[in-house]
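Give me the fold.
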Amino acid sequence: MDLDNLNGIETEINNVVLTDREQALTRLDKIIENLPDELSNLIESAFKCNRIPKEYLFSSILFAFSNAAGLTFSIDSSGYTNYANLYLAIIGSRGDSKSPAMDLATDPLVQIDNQNYDDFKNIVDNQEENKEVRKQLFIQDATIEAAIYCHFKNKDSIGIFVDELTFLIEKMANKNSSEGAAWRTFLLQGNTNKFIDISRKTTLSYRIEKSYPTLLGSIQTQLLSKLFANGNLESGLIDRILFTPKLTSNNTISKENIKPEYNLAYKESLQNLYQSRIDIGHDNKHREIKILLDQEAESKILEYQQELIYRQEKEENLVKEYISKMMINIYKISLLLHLIKQSKSKNYYFDITLETVDSAIEILEFFYFNFKIILKETINPQENEIKIDDVIKYAILNGKLQKDILPLTDLDKSTISRKWNKTLNNMQLATNPKTKLNN
């Protein structure tokens, strides 16, 4: 830690004192505060009026803009080309307003899909032979063959948008399901935009030179462990998903509705990005716009990646592997956030700035702590106590009292007291092995 850097000192202290949930909430507040008004107003208003958790709507908005961007926009740095496609999973219980968040964020693009379908049907109904290509942003109930073929016909992007991810997860976790294995392979290849080549002896063969799938769906908390089963973890699929557990709640019913101007401003911003993609080049005549990082922004990313490498050395295997994908996701999120910030004015050609990269890091750290929440509270709940000893030790060293750390944990007063005395005794023994404190 650089002791001359006050921000670094504050971060180190927070890493010890704050729980993962508090870390995620702190970052969420800062993220929303720094978003363009057309996004932040919608998030805050939906939370107040419709009781939609802020983190659910924020993640759903990232998915919507990720779809709108497609392969039209890319970022080159350190010899690699990255795109803005993301996989997101919303975690919660029944009644947590997961679906309303996803529906609100994607509605402007669903309207485009609806219109494209009507246009497609009108043409098909008046043709003897169907040669029309259906334009499509989202798929829901599709086989893997249909999903890949749909992407072949819509080369810029294909959004896998399912209200409930459980069925897809069960397929991928079933060792006897060839469809599940194919879905996992598609998502793994698509995350880094690799080519997909389908060769069949008796049916159509085709090739997608660059893939761009996106993913959004919800998972009930009690079913989350299935996602970590039978190859999904080992393959690295888990590391590519940005998880969003429930962090905020509003228990107050409101008579107010979201202001129409908030919905309209969000819709225009999202559809501006999609229309720019159309204007820049249609799918069959694709033209890619490379967005550059300014010098400060590029230096910041390299500095952050170095920090991630140092952090990997201190983490357990599951988190260590997740951090390795963060080194790629920082480019994806920096690009996506740049597009979001420029969508009102359509000035996409500007360089990505240091300010945008700083905000992208906050977003990536938000998802990092979300992942740790998932591991501790859902996958490995017994690990919740690991950090408590560090918190107690820090409190003792800084002259704090037991009552000062009670709000930072889920433990009762007697448990804290026992752990406090044990930690204090161990610290005393480490300093003077001949001394033992009376408990």
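The first strand starts at residue 73 and ends at 77.
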